[in-house]
Design goal:
12 helices; eight-stranded parallel beta sheet; binds N-carbamoyl-L-aspartate; TIM Barrel; alpha/beta; binds zinc ion; three-stranded antiparallel beta sheet
């Protein structure tokens, strides 16, 4: 059996910089048409010069592949109208991190005071720049996303013309918000569709499945599956593929992030096929993202997957992927 996916998009992707960028960028650019590139470098991407130069390094790393990096800035409440107007045509979205909530987010926001951030959000609304949010508080780890729900509601209701993307949602509560606020959208990762906290820490501890937000309960995973598999128009695929070197994962103080980019299409095909929802995979993997973001540019690409056993490599360079060594049912046959 063959499955053809048209123009796959990864709307939440960490490509890093330097040697890591050279290693991982081709692993996305081979099969994806484009990706929303996260700005949490050290230091984060906060200026036009940095953004343009990072885009150039990404294009260099992908060589001849047809892949469009959709660039993002790291949210700062100091961004002015003049600054955002000037950079508008170079970016696709702005990513907001609460301070210290995840990898390289120390320069993030320390509170959601509308007096402090309102002007920037108003300008973003009028320039139609989507706001992507890592929605977690610094509360108890299993409750962080649920606690952040009140902030999503505050922002969605005060800035009704601002497109807000709840990144990598992991809970049933977040899924429910989608149908309450017109201007809330979401990305869902592959790993949160497949694993729960049991896989991370229920048996032997698996650092390669540790990420922010942490995988939750079975009922949360069920809600994520329902909304993704149904092709819900407000959700799209964002892998949150976040590579860290093996020694940063298999360590005291394991870094957060799961690396999935090169295996995402194969595993999504398996999941959607098992649930008889292959037609909706095209929506989840590309069409919904195009409708949500509007005007995403890319060169057409078709990925042909076939039902043939594939063993997930044990490593890509010094990065260990999710499910390393596991046999799965789909392989990539051709990209055209
Ligand atoms: C990401 C990373 O490593 O940059 N880590 C993660 O656990 N998801 C950052 C992020 O998206 O939170
Ligand atoms: Zn991320």
């Amino acid at each position: 059996m063959e499955v053809i996916l048209k123009n796959p998009l990864d709307m939440h992707l960490h490509l890093r910089d330097g040697d890591m960028l050279s290693l991982v960028a081709p692993l996305s650019s081979r099969t994806f048409s484009g990706g929303l590139i996260m700005p949490n470098l050290i230091p984060p991407v906060t200026s036009k010069e940095e953004l343009i130069s990072y885009r150039g390094r990404i294009l260099e790393a992908i060589g001849d592949d047809n892949f469009t990096p959709y660039m993002t800035l790291f949210f700062k409440p100091t961004y002015t109208e003049e600054f955002l107007k000037d950079i508008r045509d170079n970016l696709t979205a702005i990513k907001l991190y609460p301070a210290g909530i995840t990898t390289n987010s120390e320069g993030g926001l320390s509170g959601f005071d509308l007096d402090e951030i309102g002007d920037t959000l108003d300008v973003m609304s009028s320039l139609e720049i989507p706001l992507c949010i890592h929605g977690e508080t610094n509360g108890f780890v299993m409750d962080r996303e649920a606690e952040f729900g009140a902030i999503y509601e505050l922002l969605a209701s005060n800035f009704p013309n601002l497109k807000i993307i709840m990144e990598h949602i992991t809970t049933r509560d977040s899924v429910e918000l989608l149908d309450i606020y017109d201007n809330l959208y979401a990305t869902i990762t592959l790993h949160h569709l497949l694993i729960t906290l049991d896989d991370v820490a229920g048996g032997m501890l698996n650092p390669h499945l540790f990420c922010k937000p942490i995988a939750k309960r079975y009922e949360d995973r069920e809600a994520l599956r329902e909304v993704a598999l149904s092709g819900h128009p407000k959700v799209m695929f964002g892998s949150d593929s976040a590579p860290h070197p093996q020694d940063a994962k298999e360590a005291h103080f394991c870094s957060a992030g799961v690396f999935t980019a090169p295996i995402a299409l194969q595993l999504l095909t398996e999941l959607f096929l098992e649930n008889s929802n292959l037609d909706n995979l095209q929506k989840f993997i590309s069409d919904n993202g195009q409708n949500i973001y509007k005007n995403l540019e890319f060169s057409p690409k078709e990925v042909v997957l076939e039902e043939r056993e594939f063993t997930i490599p044990n490593r890509y360079g010094d990065v260990i992927p999710m499910f390393d060594g596991k046999k799965i049912n789909f392989s990539i046959k051709e990209v055209r």
